[in-house]
Amino acid sequence: MPLDTSTYSLALLRLDGRRWNELRRMHAQISTQPTADGSSYLEMGNTKVICTVAGPAEGRRAGGGGGTGGDANAMVQVEIGIAGFSGVDRKRRGRGDKRTSEMQMTIANAFSNTLFTHLYPHSTILITLHVLSQDGSLLAACLNAATLALIDAGVPMSDYVAACTSGSTSSYSSNDEAADPLLDLNGTEEQELPFLTVGTLGAGEKVSVLVMESRVQATRLEGMLAVGVDGCKQVKEILDQIVRRHGKRILESVKT
């Protein structure tokens, strides 16, 4: 069913009631899996992801999953499991799924350049992500959940990797030059509108991840990227608050 964007020009509100520059509700927890070295649970709207981190551990892990690294650095491997009930179509993705493999490689490359892998030569850092529900911004949610789990595992990194999506209010075929950018698209919007996923380091504007799989006019791209980077700054602040609250709870439990 086509997305009805006719009301946006009148009320400047999207179908879920948000304005163009508003994030969806974000909720996250750290140390959700006691047996893992690091773990997290994150919700971005109705997109829900569980992440666990194993390592750094000596040796190499054979098998599937995206991985990067050399002998002098730790190898970052990513495995993503998408539940069959997570989407509307209830499609079960196998290990060889192309889209899943691309996401695994994107996440592995992002954290290979962010983590201090040179401190752990000949070792492996395994990031495992379980997708429980999909409603847009899946790659961004996986990146944010992995950031929290790596912090929980105590793996040193240069800064947070904060990610979100941004899009445009009209499709490529409409050729509307006056289209407005949108922040943090949901699943319905992603099906109909062009969008990109951007990840930045910390509160700055250094882009570490940029993925776009849809067509859009070049004149709209700059505005979409600017809105996405600004959204990443908001996400970074939320992630920082979550980490600080978790650290405060740990200190209070030690004192008692």
Q: Order of strands in the sheet with the most strands? A: 1-2-3-6-5-4
Listing every helix as H and every strand as E from the N terminus to the C terminus, the arrangement reads HEEEEEHEHEEHEEH
Distance linking N and C termini? 56 Å
Tally of individual helices: 5
Q: How many DSSP E strands?
A: 10
Structure description:
There is one protein chain. Helix content is 31%, strand content 27%. With 256 residues, it is of the alpha+beta class. The strands form 2 sheets. Strands 1-2-3-6-5-4 form a 6-stranded mixed sheet, covered by helices on one side. It is globular. The model has no long low-confidence stretch (mean pLDDT 84).
Summarize this, please?
By secondary structure, the protein is an alpha+beta fold. The protein has helices at 8-11, 98-112, 138-153, 187-192, 218-255, and strands at residues 26-30, 38-44, 47-58, 66-68, 75-82, 123-133, 161-168, 181-183, 195-201, 207-212.
Helix and strand layout, with pairings?
Blueprint: H1 8-11, E1 26-30, E2 38-44, E3 47-58, E4 66-68, E5 75-82, H2 98-112, E6 123-133, H3 138-153, E7 161-168, E8 181-183, H4 187-192, E9 195-201, E10 207-212, H5 218-255
List keywords for this structure.
alpha+beta, 6-stranded mixed β-sheet, 4-stranded antiparallel β-sheet, about 25% strand, 10 strands, about 260 residues, 5 helices
